[in-house]
Amino acid sequence: MRYWLFKSEPDVWGWDQQVARGAAGEQWDGVRNYQARNFMREMALGDRGFFYHSNKGKAVVGMVEVCATAHPDSTTDDPRWECVDIRALQPAVREVTLEEIKADPRLKDMVLVNNSRLSVQPVSEAEWQVICDLAGLET
DNA sequence: GCCAACGTTGGC
DNA sequence: GCCAACGTTGGC
C-alpha cells in the first residue's frame, strides 16, 4: 500500500464535506497539474492518504482512502485530466499543523515542506507513521 | 492582501 | 526548442 496527501482549500472543499459523502466518497476533481495527475494514476484501491487544509487551517485534518482508481475528470471535457475517488476514514483526533510538520526533523523531506504548491503528493511510510502518531490516527 | 515560487502558454 | 509573459497557488 502507498500513502498520499490531498490538499484542498476548506472554503472550496473541506473535510466536513468529504465526511458527508460517506462511504461512497467523491471524485478528487479539478486537478490541472500533470505531476499531481500522474500521482493519481499511480494510486491503487485501498491506498491511504491525508486530507490537508491549505490556506485556512494549514493542517492535516483526517485520513482518507482511495475508493476508485483514476478515471476521466467529469468537471472538464479535456481528456488530459483524470482523478481518483476518495472517501473519509477517520478524523484527526488532533490536527497536525504545517508549523509542526516544518518543525519536526523527521518530516523535513516531505513534499509538503519542499514543494508546497503540489496539490496531490506522495508520503513515505515513515512520514505516514509520524503524522498518524501526532494526529492520533489509527493505522 | 501581498508576493515568491512555480507551471503553462505562446511567439519567435 | 527557448524563454518571456502570464496566471495560479498558498504561505505569511
From TrEMBL:
Superkingdom to which the source organism belongs: Bacteria
Name of this chain's protein: Putative RNA-binding protein with PUA-like domain
Domain EVE intervals: 2-133
Stored CDD domains: EVE
Gene3D superfamilies: ph1033 like domains
PANTHER family for this protein: THYMOCYTE NUCLEAR PROTEIN 1
